[in-house]
UniProtKB/TrEMBL annotation:
C2H2-type domain residues: 142-162
This protein's name: tRNA (guanine(27)-N(2))-dimethyltransferase
InterPro entries tied to this protein: SAM-dependent_MTases_sf, Trm1, tRNA_met_Trm1_C, Znf_C2H2_type
Pfam families: TRM
Keyword tRNA-binding recorded: yes
Lineage: Eukaryota, Metazoa, Chordata, Craniata, Vertebrata
Ranges of Basic and acidic residues composition bias in the record: 1-12, 24-35
Subcellular compartments: Nucleus, Nucleolus
Alphabetic keyword roster: Isopeptide bond, Metal-binding, Methyltransferase, Nucleus, Phosphoprotein, RNA-binding, S-adenosyl-L-methionine, Transferase, tRNA processing, tRNA-binding, Ubl conjugation, Zinc, Zinc-finger
PROSITE patterns (alphabetical): SAM_MT_TRM1, ZINC_FINGER_C2H2_1
Organism: Pachyramphus minor
Region (Disordered): 1-45, 668-705
Amino acid sequence: GVVDSEKVKSDDLDANFPESELETEIKRTEEEPTRESGGNILDVSADYPRDKHISIQRHLADLEKLADLREDKKKPCPLCPEEKFKACYSHKLHRHLQNLHWKVSVEFKGYRMCICHLPCRPVKPNLVGDQTLSKMGAHYHCIICSATITRRTDMIGHINRHVNKGETESRFITVRAPTNEVIKESATEVQVLPNHSTPQKTDSYFNPKMKLNRQLIFCALAVLAEERKPIECLDAFGATGIMGLQWAKHLKSSVKVTINDCNENSVKIIKENCHLNKMKVKLNMKEGDSDGAVGDEENTDTIEVTKMDANVIMHLRSFDFIHLDPFGTSVNYLDSAFRNVRNLGIVSLTSTDISSLYAKAQHVALRHYGCNIVRTEYYKELAARIVIAAVTRAAARCNKGIEVLLAVALEHFVLVVVRVLRGPSTADNSAKKIQYLIHCQWCEERIFQKEGNMVEENPYQQLPCDCHGSMPGRTAVVLGPLWSGSLFNTGFLRRMLLEAVQYGLDGAQPLLKTLVCEAECTTLKRFSTHGPGDENKQEECGVYIKTSNISAESYIVPGKRKGEEVIRGAIKRQRAEHSTEHPAFYYNMHRHSIRGMNMPKLNKFLNYLSEAGYRVSRTHFDPMGVRTNAPLAQFKTVLMKYSTPTYTVGQAEGPLHLPGDVQVGEEVPAAADTKEEDAEFPEDDKSGVVNAVSTQSYPTDCAAD
């Protein structure tokens, strides 16, 4: 009876459709297996795509057509079994399909994936005594693959993953060529997928905002390439391969580039990008022979592409330069990076887990870095010192010490570049620079805890402020462990700046000039990026850079060990020249501004602190930050001394009443000098005068709130 009914229904179906529609159906669709449930037999509409389930339709009327195959007045739901929804009249069926199936559907390219209640999803049976109950749940059928997913949010995420991978046809038919986008950066072209800017959602993540990060790393590698040639460098997380391609394209025979990624699709894109930039590819030995006869090591335009876990390749091979840029924290790869890195090599790492490093997720910072932190005015420098402390501990476990060459913390990332110094003595010296920080939560005063194993009776005495005596309760917290040493190497930064000028990296030059200025902790105005014999000079906020007469190539002598000794001696001479470290941390002018008073211009204030005998400079961590060795009390005193009252309407004509600690004879900038200050410092557009928001009149004899 069932077979006969199937033949009758199919004959009726053929009779209802014209020949043209049947031919279209044969060309565009494959017949779906019919469903037998209570004698109801359903077929597929001719309007729907190939290899798709009956729950996937373009219009609600298409679902109703499936139910119209039955000639009875009462019609069943095509997506529900009879025991769940019995046959009913057309108006009731229309409401059922619209409210239960159509409203909760997932849309994709004009099609709707409606929720299905048919017994087509395998569900584990529930054993109750000796009986087996087959309880079928609602689910969705994927329009691209054969997956069945229960939740609507999971179905949306499943479809998005297909789209990110370029899979928009049934049975995973991937068409990459028309969907790929070509992006050019620093004379290097790379192909990326459509959703390349979404991390962890695509195989080829590419962030244009990290261009400055890539330029800084390139400058560091270029400086190392001047010291010794050739050097083996590794980009452990290639993604699109943009960074390694830039290294090989500009530095050429000075470097041997290896780009690694553990994702197969990323490795494929890296190879395509190498061919796009006319680079030959040398495959990993495990994968097979090379693409295009690239066996000899003398071939300069060759990039080795490997498909391994980053920890595995760093354990197997030695490198002179290693860059780590995973999604999030880098702590899981530090031990492997320092295991085989060569002596006097460089390890650079980019950490993008800024939510934990910038004290927004303090429990994550404790879990990843073993560090206790709170949100402070100098939170970006705090993040850099947290990462360096983790790097130092990882290097010390391998009997290696570090020298910090560069530490940058910007909006999207924290970049740390260190030089590796082999030996237990250097490891001990580096480990001693990891200390705890005492931070006052009232006035933001801070100081590193004194070295020693003895417990102090009153650790608050180490702080220069007296908040503990004047405020109730506990006023300070202990942060760390943190790196307490220097964050910059001035000589290395100068050479990085010269490389940036040589290769035309305009985006990195202003930051490098600020870093040199910050490393020296000076506000001198004269800046030169040329050799000592060149008379051309550039005016920029920074210092006058003098380049050494001895080039880096003169350090290279025949013999590996002897050459390294000469390089080590040159590094020691550079340290002796720049032994004065910059002050730790900085102060924010807005944080310590005085209510009812207008602050002076930032550059003017730097001059006032410098005239008072303190070292002072701006900082890249904060546009309104001031790095100085002045105590916080003296910082506030100078700020109060050169601040002017905020005038109200009835007060503008009256005399000025200065704070008690400012003498009448001392020079105080008045409101009339504002134009003169603006003309003298036109480049400072971020250090404007802070006006009081309220129109309330403050007493003129009140110095501060």
